[in-house]
Amino acid sequence: MIHSIEVKQLCQRVVDSSGVLDILDNVSFTVDPGEALAITGSSGSGKSTLLGLLAGLDVPSSGQVLLLGNDLFALDEEARAALRAAHVGFVFQSFQLLPNLTALENVMLPLELAGKPARDAAQGMLERVGLKDRLHHYPKTLSGGEQQRVSLARAFVVQPKLLFADEPTGSLDTRNGARVIELMFELHRELDTTLIMVTHDQQLAALCQRELHLSGGRVQAA
């Protein structure tokens, strides 16, 4: 079986006036297809740095990440971007919607970039997350919970094999956060998407099948 993600001795170091800082120190683990993994730890533990490396958005000091069997850092930046476009979805704390596009246009965008039919699929996914009446609204006219549901629809409309979520409820109140999480896990199960979520919320982490806890850049539990 090919793991969704395989991480081998991953290190990320930065050098400043005080010397060498190990942000990630010899991190190794695997994630199986369809699994939900929570990455937890205190602020500064390396969670977001690790997520960026797993997605190939950054390059490590040393070590290896295999994403769907592909050695990310043996690929150039263009090839890594193509791999993400084909197989990966993202949900961010800050939504990352394009302000000059409607909800429908935001969700259509990744399909259009992939050269796939977009409108019907995007509309169907927005209806799936409860935004049937918000298709033509711009982000600034939507609540935070609605914006994050647009972000979810955009991430899942391409039916990704992997979804990376970085503090997906961090900007939401309790009620909207709970609804977004409910939808995210429903879609994760329906589409059999591998879910990797950075969170500081232990209740949220408990919804995942497994927790990887970082402390001082090292894995404490996996």
Explain this structure to me?
This is ABC transporter ATP-binding protein. Belongs to the ABC transporter superfamily. Macrolide exporter (TC 3.A.1.122) family. It comes from Pollutimonas harenae. One of its GO terms (cellular component) is membrane protein complex. Helix content is 34%, strand content 28%. A 6-stranded mixed β-sheet has the order 6-7-8-3-9-10. Strand 9 and strand 10 form a beta hairpin. It has a domain at 34-46 and 82-221: Rossmann fold (3-Layer(aba) Sandwich). The protein has helices at 47-54, 77-87, 103-113, 119-128, 144-156, 174-191, 202-205; strands spanning 5-16, 19-31, 36-40, 62-67, 70-71, 88-92, 162-166, 194-198, 210-215, 218-221. The protein contains 7 helices and 10 strands. Helix 3 (103-113) packs across helix 4, helix 4 (119-128) packs across helix 5 (144-156) and helix 5 (144-156) packs parallel to helix 6 (174-191). The chain has 222 residues and is an alpha/beta fold.
